[in-house]
Amino acid sequence: MQKTVHIIGAGISGLSAAVRLANAGYKVAVHEATQQAGGRCRSYFDAATNLTIDNGNHLLLSGNRHALSYARSIGTEAGLVGPARAQFPFVDLASGRRWQLDLGDSRLPLWVFDEARRVPDTTLRDYLALAPLAWAGTAALVGNTIPCKGTLYDRLVQPLLLAALNVDPPEGSAGLAGAIVRETLLAGGQACRPLIARDGLSSVLIEPAVKLLQERGHSVQFSHELRTLGMSGDRVSELDFGGGDKIELAADDAVVLAVPPRAAATLLPGLKTP
Ligand SMILES: Cc1cc2nc3c(=O)[nH]c(=O)nc-3n(C[C@H](O)[C@H](O)[C@H](O)COP(=O)(O)OP(=O)(O)OC[C@H]3O[C@@H](n4cnc5c(N)ncnc54)[C@H](O)[C@@H]3O)c2cc1C
Questions:
Q1: pLDDT tens digit string along 150-165?
Q2: Which domains does the chain have, with CATH numbers?
Q3: What stretches of 110-268 show up as alpha helix (H) in DSSP?
Q4: For ligand 1, which residues put their CB under 6 angstroms from it?
Q5: How far is the CA of 249 from the centre of ligand 1 (A)?
């Protein structure tokens, strides 16, 4: 019998898992608590402007190969667009000073060797001091791994890591920061082009995935919030959606919790979450 994978949550993580598993031959059933897919990455109709708008600005860097491969798998990679060259204008609001970081279009981080292209008033040695991030473990903090002060930190590292980690950088995971640096800054301008979903988040990253799954006979159910995981020893044996709506799992079935950390910890008490 074909193995069924139940995916809890139809945000971009759940949809990406669903498309990948469906392509690998699994039967997929997506269960989403709300009435729409997309979670924190979606578009909605805004009556005040009479426009369909995104829930927030989302920027991808071209080095994010997982996100690009997901877009490719649902046929919308061309909907992610950006400039050919990775150039970022900066303004220091405190001093009013402006400059442009020009990461170029190479596959190597050649920009650090060119004074005119790197952050003003920084030296090659400042960039070398970031090297420990590249091999930091997941338990290490940024603040214990690299110097969180100085011109390079203030002008590039702090804003970049704040945007990517959503926490004050010294408190952030050095392992995650290292992955960002390896996959973007260290991979040259080719990996740093800013991309946005030209026609909106939902039409580029969400709706095509739901359509693809449904057209291939997989189920995507909305207003279907998982309330409890029934356990049998250390295995999930039942999904309980409340009101007597339960799904018993076969021995080979699997469950993916593609929900935010707090929701996952509520469903699976004792789960260690970020
Ligand atoms: C304003 C804003 C701007 C952002 N900008 C960027 C950016 O520029 N670049 C970037 O890379 N990222 C950005 N992000 C982050 C990005 O949106 C998220 O990392 C991503 O959308 C998370 O996807 P997810 O599927 O993991 O989680 P979510 O999107 O949270 O999806 C989880 C889904 O699970 C559902 N769910 C929860 N509990 C249950 C349950 N018990 N049963 C069934 N379903 C359940 C939820 O309803 C939700 O649909 C931004 C986020 C916001 C809000």
A1: 999 999 999 999 999 9
A2: 4-77+200-267 (3.50.50.60), 87-192 (no CATH)
A3: 124-128, 131-134, 151-152, 158-165, 174-183, 201, 207-215, 261-267
A4: 8-14, 31-34, 39-41, 55-60, 225-226, 258-260, 263
A5: 26
